[in-house]
């Protein structure tokens, strides 16, 4: 669902104001934060998607990495998960579901997460997701907001998974392109583990998923009187993406995202097609706001831990209009 439709639905609902809930669906946060006492926080999220690759085992791994990412973005560690499955039993063999669940379980175990159960329904379309629960300390949480003027913005994974997945559905994607996005989508965004016991000030963090880079970046500056200036040439993009874009192979969600962000995003780079900025990502990279003096050191550590294409793509600036400007 696009941000405009989702916003229209949510504005009609009563928002709970339990003092123990430090984050709910307001404010763009990636997960719910619930205070347990003595500074201990429970963080919880849910995610469910339809297949983005053909291989069932890979799809299961991608689903787990995608769902678990929301816990990592809060600076917390995941511990427990529940499966959610919609499966067309009359259309597909059960072995496919077994492979999907095995992929999810293996990736969850890699993250130190125990899958303790779940729920299944028979559905016309295959869907798989997870509810994930983690824990962290109130004093060391990362939030989507909190960036400061002069902070640099790091993106840890390339853009283009939505475009390549769309191309795959049209049976026009190269084997190499599919292998690249599969590897990226399966990779855990385990930044809290990567920098554990290291002295970094993570001012803000989120991940790039269904709303695309530009919309998720807007969430980081909402209500902050800050904007972000991003260098187009610094943004990592999968090699094949621009060719597929030129052939018109774009997911519909990209245009919904672009429509919602109209007026909030400004592109000043001549000859650049901005639609890539709105491509819906599955298990995309992290967006990290960190003080300028720490940016290059953090980037080096991130690259050494398997995010070879991570880059510093921009910086936060004072801006009463809270725009994202691409130069």
Helix and strand arrangement:
Elements: H1 3-10, E1 21-23, E2 32-37, E3 40-49, H2 56-73, E4 77-87, H3 94-110, E5 114-122, E6 127-137, E7 152-155, H4 161-169, H5 175-186, H6 191-194, E8 204-207, H7 212-221, E9 226-230, H8 241-246, H9 252-260, E10 265-267, E11 286-290, H10 292-304, E12 311-318, E13 324-326
Parallel strand pairs: 4-5, 9-13, 10-13
Antiparallel strand pairs: 1-2, 2-3, 3-6, 4-6, 7-11, 7-12, 8-11, 9-12
Q: How would you describe this protein?
A:
With 327 residues, this protein is of the alpha+beta class. Helix content is 32%, strand content 25%. It has ten helices and 13 strands. Strands 8-11-7-12-9-13-10 form a seven-stranded mixed sheet, with helices on both faces. Strands 1-2-3-6-4-5 form a six-stranded mixed sheet, with helices on one face. The two termini are 29 Å apart.
